[in-house]
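Can't paste images in this forum, so I'm doing it all in text. The chain is below; anyone willing to post the predicted structure tokens underneath?
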Amino acid sequence: MAALDAGADDFVTRPFSTPELMARIRAALRRVPSAQSSPKKVRVGEVMIDFEERTVLRENVSTHLTPKELRPTGPPP
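Text version of the structure:
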């Protein structure tokens, strides 16, 4: 219960089955907003990032980004 009070959404006690763990992971992923709801453009100060065009615009200078440069660095969805 301490894990839930500390902010966890769910927990699995040991021993656990792999199918149960995978089902819980799928359920958690369903609660995360999909990539389709992500913004197409983001402004951070003077910088505009266009995810569809894969460009960054700063001081009227446009820089093209490769797919690898624009790839998220966080954990996979």
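The CA atoms of residues 45 and 58 lie 9 Å apart. The helical segments are 2-5, 18-30, 67-70.
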